């Protein structure tokens, strides 16, 4: 356990019936011990790396499209991120058949300083058809994206995801460290538009935090929560909670489910943030304050009286709640403006 981090709340012996609607909508993280211990994949993962690979090989289609493997030299100590001046990344990506990636991971299983190898966010139904027929969860009518993550001793820097996330360890061991969304300023986040895997990441090395360079990280750690997970264990990570994932074994597999508590047609708020940075952030202070009030009125505190003075059919974008048709119209208008 990292110094200063509190344990994540746990539910012991949590079978699939623990996945109530209230739990899946929770804004607080929770560890679910043994949630997927009944999966054949988790049983194979608990036996050995070789057994886990043999099980996965059953579902790898001959001639399937290659997966993307992220590979870094032993000198990065498993921590994927940037070079020293953030001008490039400290890893490369290769397209390889999944069986080759699995064989390579076994090859380096017992090496003290292997290259860092990570097959991340690989859609299960595409690359391992039939796997979910034997290893799956009922999330109460949700239509999640199910992905698999395979690698050796790797460290994924703290980052946020917009969807809710149910992460299930099925081979190896992982340490997960979480921070509430309000710790943004204390995590020293890197570039928004040049990221290792699509999401901005904390620049702090959790294994050796430089508190001279990142002094507020000490405050972040006072809000941290952590847990170690083994085969069969899972953790629910609510939307926008910062999470640092560290694989602790020579071979590790995680299956996760992502879903949003919003209609599929809603755009990601990250696009709105980027547009606001481009068009609002650098205005003169008085104008920026004006737009802060505009956003409060229309977005963050849209009271019932916001559009009462406009006849219902004429409210258009101000009608609440937003629906798919109006969202499509707004998106088309926005694209026209951005492409002018």
From TrEMBL:
Domain (JmjC) ranges: 117-274
Pfam families: Cupin_8
Gene3D superfamilies on file: Jelly Rolls (2.60.120.10)
Protein name: Cupin-like domain-containing protein
Source organism of the structure: Coralloluteibacterium stylophorae
